[in-house]
Model the fold of this input.
Amino acid sequence: MLSWFAGVVLRLAGWKPEGQPPDVPKYVIIAAPHTSNWDFPFTIMFATYFRLKFNYMIKDEMMRPPWGWFFRALGGIPINRRSRNNVVEQSIERLRQAERLALVVPPEGTRSKVTRWRTGFYYIALGAGVPIALGFLDFKRKVGGFGPLFYPTGDIEADMARIRSFYQGITGKRPQQFGEITIAPAETISEQQDGS
Done:
């Protein structure tokens, strides 16, 4: 019933779904482009339409009263940024322990424009041995859903080229805020792994 209702709301708003969630128990979902506060409610609507239960990492401070119940109900998993284990390692451990988990990670990490994507999503999937699903919201075509699924090979430059090719034609709510799909030089990638 909820899926039907979400479909009606999306159609009334002029949007349509594309693709399907992966038929695998555990994976990382790229959430891009992330340029607006509208991204989250549309993500919720499409997830409801696809009958997809997803999770995302959120600072543990956000899970306290009065709003903790809200973020938890929407799939929030508390993560301790003060821990000796960084965000990537905590996320990998969550995926390893779970029987089923679709973990959403926005590679830009913020709605503001960034010069390059953070690589946490990549190393989470690589470390947990799970595939990456290319999730998207295209505000120009008013289409949202899923692109191809692939397993990271460990060759991040080659894999990022595949990701870049997919997102090249997708437009965020505020296109000028969409960061270039590039990664940091090799010597600074380890710093980026501290965040997702």
Observations:
- The longest helix spans residues 156-167.
- The mean pLDDT is 83.
